[in-house]
Amino acid sequence: MLELRPSCEHCNKDLPPDSDQAMICSFECTFCLDCVVQVLQHACPNCGGSFSHRPIRPAFDGKNENDLQHYPASTARKYRPVDTQAHAAWLAARNKNQEA
């Protein structure tokens, strides 16, 4: 079951379950769209992978009980601001290696 985390790991912006601004990597690291584009340049600082929009779980689906009522979003915040200088250096090195 996908963990719907409540906030951006970098800026701590609220990302409610129905947010279209929530982005996740394959390890469910969660960031807001602004941070993914402007700060992280589409690369997860934790695993190095790319991001996709986080799916929106229905509030009340009624079908097989696959909704927020039966599978609520997490309330545990993971606020871990990214070291932007280290991330930029990692991106530069990765891009240089890809060009070689």
Automatic annotation (TrEMBL):
Q: What is this protein called?
A: DUF1272 domain-containing protein
Query: Known InterPro entries for this protein?
Result: DUF1272
For this protein, the record's Pfam families field holds: DUF1272 (PF06906)
Q: Which organism is it from?
A: Undibacterium nitidum
